[in-house]
UniProtKB/TrEMBL annotation:
Cofactor note: Binds 4 Cu cations per monomer.
The protein's name: Laccase
Gene3D superfamilies the UniProt entry points to: Cupredoxins - blue copper proteins
Any one cellular-component term (Gene Ontology): apoplast
Residue ranges occupied by any Plastocyanin-like domain in the UniProt entry: 36-149, 161-311, 416-550
Pfam families: Cu-oxidase, Cu-oxidase_2, Cu-oxidase_3
Molecular function terms from GO: copper ion binding; hydroquinone:oxygen oxidoreductase activity
UniProt keywords, alphabetically: Apoplast, Copper, Lignin degradation, Metal-binding, Oxidoreductase, Repeat, Secreted, Signal
Lineage top rank: taxon: Eukaryota
Function field: Lignin degradation and detoxification of lignin-derived products.
Length: 568
């Protein structure tokens, strides 16, 4: 009997050891080499050199599982500085790999290289990677798909999966576009087209043959992973004759809900299930801009792809166009609002509390007076600007903020970013005093103790023009407790907070002339950029950074900088 007992114990110990070994062995290390260089690409009847990765536009799709490690060696053969950001990845203790230039690292200069090393921890779904240096993001981007560590999705297994990347196209170098505008402070030229998986679609000239096609079989259900990589525009997306069931957003599962139209801001991702339940045929997927600002120029063209059923009877018939979806009007704010409101967490959420920091940040545009002796191209001879709490963020140049913090170098930034606007006013009024239009340029961060609970009200302003601002926080996911229009009133609006199943996001749209309330725990040490994901607004200064201090011990502290971290 004792021998049998010992044998059983040994077997159990062996089984436990095998499980532990399997658990460790299941995590993989993925090595990639990204070569960033100019490559001739033809779109809209023209061929010109654009900066892309490994000759691909969009760039390579990275596929990993939760718990895996990515090691990406980036070689810069382009003529511009470059960094890469892994949008939505928590980067726990690895802020050195986050990527925004002069915030967490100096850029990779032409001819240089840098290896990004980080582990995916407790995340799964659709994220993406992109350049975070000037406007290189226009063409330097790609999908980052995180599969479950074990098991399957919390929804029926799809037959196929398709990344669907929305982007913007210029018939010229996007860096030259923004530099030309920056010289005078004018608004940059709008794009010439939008694309789906790198192709504009057959509503544009010289684009018919290359239109992106998604091939499906009748009756099958597929997973579409939508990513808005556009530089400066939010988008409505619809597919003719088909409903979509939303199952995830920003790499967080959601309560499933069915819709005929999506709205994605730049930076956001949305996963949907689509069942091929219509008569065999060809159906347009189409996207155009959601333009929330009045009087602001935008690209009003429409990009398309085609959903094509196998055995489609009209596939080879010339002149037979696919069915076209009904898209909302460009300024259809109610539809955009309703879609965002449908996104909720799939189960009861334990909301972080009690709150240690009650923050109130204004987000909006502004105008700088023209310096003496200069010619300026903004309204009435001014220069466009943007700010948070009247601070227009200025990138340092001699050292990144994170390096300065780590090395104790003074003079690169200050820790006095205001917790509330320096002047309170009617933020969404029609006629705001011109005395409030000019922000203060500075490099300011807001310090947080490790483990602090932060509640942040993001208040849009109507200075120059109210607009929906997609606000992204690097290194964090946060709960969106509520959004609304007008000026936030804590006495009135706290009653609307969703404390049951708020969505978990990394990018939230602050409604046009409205507000959003988010909450998160500062559990990731480092310097974390927060900014509007309309890149023209980052250029103008609509950004700030949180500085999260180390906690107790190694597991709550920032890792040392890697040996190959680029120098300024």
């Amino acid at each position: 009997m004792e021998a049998l007992k010992d044998s059983i114990i040994q077997c159990l110990l062996l089984l436990l050891l095998c499980l532990l070994l399997f658990g460790c062995a299941s995590a993989e290390v993925h090595h990639h080499e990204f070569v960033v260089e100019a490559t001739p690409v033809k779109r809209l009847c023209r061929t010109h050199n654009i900066i892309i990765v490994n000759g691909q536009y969009p760039g390579p799709t990275l596929a990993v599982r939760d718990g895996d490690t990515l090691v990406v060696n980036v070689i810069n053969r382009a003529k511009y500085n470059v960094t890469l950001h892994w949008h939505g990845v928590r980067q726990l203790r690895t802020a050195w790999a986050d990527g925004p230039e002069y915030v967490t690292q100096c850029p990779i200069m032409p001819g240089g290289s840098y290896t990004y090393r980080f582990t995916i921890e407790q995340q799964e779904g659709t994220l993406w990677w992109h350049a975070h240096s000037s406007w290189l993001r226009a063409t330097v981007h790609g999908a980052l798909i995180i599969y479950p560590k074990h098991g399957s999705y919390p929804f029926p297994k799809p037959k196929k999966e398709f990344p669907v990347i929305l982007a913007e196209w210029w018939n010229q170098d996007p860096i030259r576009v923004v530099r030309r505008a920056a010289r005078t402070g004018a608004a940059p030229n709008v794009s010439d087209a939008f694309t789906i998986n790198g192709q504009p679609g057959d509503l544009y000239k010289c684009s018919n043959k290359e239109t992106t096609v998604f091939r499906v079989a009748p009756g099958e259900t597929n997973l579409l992973r939508f990513i808005n990589a556009a530089l400066n525009n939010e988008h409505f997306i619809s597919i003719a004759g088909h409903k979509m069931t939303v199952v995830a957003a920003d790499a967080a599962y959601t309560k499933p809900f069915t819709t005929s139209v999506l709205m994605l801001a730049p930076g956001q991702t949305t996963d949907v299930l689509l069942t091929a339940d219509q008569p065999a045929g060809r159906y347009y997927m189409a996207a155009h801009v959601y333009a929330s600002a009045r009087g602001v120029a935008f690209d009003n063209t429409t990009t398309t792809a085609i959903l094509e059923y196998s055995g489609c009877p009209t596939k080879n018939r010339p002149g037979v166009r696919p069915a076209f979806p009904v898209l909302p009007a460009f300024n259809d704010t109610p539809t955009a609002t309703a879609f965002a409101a449908g996104i909720r967490s799939p189960r009861l959420v334990k909301i972080p509390s009690p709150i240690d920091h009650h923050l109130f940040f204004t987000v909006g545009l502004g105008l700088f007076n023209c310096p003496p002796g200069r010619r300026c191209g903004g309204p009435n001879g001014t220069r466009f600007g943007a700010s948070m709490n009247n601070v227009s963020f200025q990138l340092p140049t001699r050292l990144s903020v994170l390096q300065a913090y780590h090395l104790g170098v003074r003079g690169v930034y200050t820790t006095d970013f205001p917790a509330a606007p320096p002047v309170q006013f009617d933020y969404t009024a029609t006629n705001i005093s011109r005395a409030l239009w000019q922000p203060v340029p500075a490099t300011k961060v807001y310090p947080l103790k490790y483990g602090s609970v932060v509640q942040l009200v993001l208040q849009g302003t109507n200075i120059f023009a109210g607009e929906e601002h997609p606000m992204h926080i690097h290194g964090y996911q946060f709960y969106v407790l509520a959004t609304g229009f007008g000026n936030f009133d804590p006495a009135r609006d706290a009653a609307s907070f969703n404390l049951v199943d708020p969505p978990l996001r990394n990018t939230v749209g602050v409604p046009v002339n409205g507000w959003a309330v988010i909450r998160f725990v500062a559990d990731n040490p480092g310097v974390w950029f927060m900014h509007c994901h309309l890149d023209v607004h980052i250029t103008w200064g609509l950004a700030m950074a949180f500085l999260v201090e180390n906690g107790v011990g190694k597991l709550q502290s920032l890792e040392p900088p890697p040996a190959d971290l680029p120098r300024c």
